[in-house]
Amino acid sequence: MNIGIIGTGNIASYLLEQINKLQRAEGQVIAIFGRNQEMGQQLSERFEADFYTDLQGFLDLPLDIVVEAATVEAAGIYVKHVVEHQKDLVVSSIGVFKDIAFLEELKRLAEAKGTHIYLPSGAIGGLDVLQSAKAADALDHVQITTRKSPASLGVEAEEEKVIFEGSAFEAVEKFPKNINVALVLAIAGIGAEKTKVRIIVDPDIEQNTHTIEAEGVFGRMELQVQNNPMPSNPKTSLLAALSILSVLQNRGSALRIGN
Ligand SMILES: NC(=O)C1=CN([C@@H]2O[C@H](COP(=O)(O)OP(=O)(O)OC[C@H]3O[C@@H](n4cnc5c(N)ncnc54)[C@H](OP(=O)(O)O)[C@@H]3O)[C@@H](O)[C@H]2O)C=CC1
Ligand SMILES: O=C([O-])CC(=O)C(=O)O
After folding, report:
1. Which ligand is in closest contact with the Cα of 197?
2. Which tens digit of pLDDT belongs to each residue from 194-206?
3. Catalysed reaction per UniProt (predicted)?
């Protein structure tokens, strides 16, 4: 499997280390696309993958799958081109799908091109439960409470404080670098307008903690993940990068676990 990565940051570096150095997936990252020349060159030399600043050159390569690991804004510019070039796509910046019509359009394009789009569970879990409940309209209410440190949220705070309460749609508009998890939850469940989000800044916490509550005819779920942040970007939980590695490990497997 030939893998390409968009982005030269934290998730990109982690995947390069795990795949190209530690062989934790059946394949190789052969190319990186980005705009940061210095980081791009460094990663290219360290992990033996070519660095591109020109998207066309990158997409002309025989890539089987492209991992977007950039930003919501950059994903909006690039992901459609990836699918148009008949590559499978893994999206990290799931906030790009706050307008669900864009995801539907991309899905139709992938069907026409015979490719797949993967939305990893990222820094949370419980998407299997939501999808099972949704299968027969048995899901009514979904809420996520995210608790992060001031460093992780990029705000100053001396004491614990709720800094946002609203829909997943509004949350992604206000915190595009911090709450992609709310969007994947919304897509798996009841949509970005109905999914409720609370963001709490907590100076006494070091982990990125997400508590998910869901209710419906199926019953009730409450799940909490206490994620270690990544050293090079405390906004991002290690679990988010691991979930992408897991998607790459499972691609093409005859066995599928979960729905
Ligand atoms: N789904 C989930 O659960 C989670 C998703 N995420 C999301 O995953 C994404 C990647 O995270 P992470 O690696 O930690 O982020 P980083 O900030 O460490 O890296 C982002 C990278 O994107 C690059 N970039 C930004 N804009 C562009 C552009 N227009 N063209 C090309 N490259 C660009 C940056 O380059 P430069 O150096 O030039 O700025 C940088 O290399 C983020 O959107 C993050 O919010 C994170 C955690 C959980
Ligand atoms: O990594 C996390 O804990 C969550 C996050 O940043 C995001 O969803 O964008």
Report:
1. 2
2. 999 999 999 999 9
3. L-aspartate + NADP(+) + H2O = oxaloacetate + NH4(+) + NADPH + H(+); L-aspartate + NAD(+) + H2O = oxaloacetate + NH4(+) + NADH + H(+)
H or E segment to which residue 250 belongs: helix 238-250
Ligand approaching nearest to the C-alpha of 43: 1
Residue 100 and residue 68 share a domain? yes
- State whether 98 and 146 are in the same domain: no
Residue given tokens 């020109």 in the structure block:
54
pTM, entire model: 0.97
**In terms of domains, do 97 and 170 share one?**
no
| Catalytic pick among 85, 116, 141, 210 | 210
Is residue 210 part of the annotated active site? The answer reads yes
Q: What is the per-residue pLDDT across 51-69, written as a single tens digit (0 to 9) for each?
A: 999 999 999 999 999 999 9
Mutational test site, ligand 2, from 174, 202, 237, 238, max ligand atoms within 8 Å of CB: 237
Q: Which residues contact 230 (CB under 8 A, 6 or more apart)?
A: 10, 14, 236, 237, 238, 241
**9 and 102 share one domain:** yes
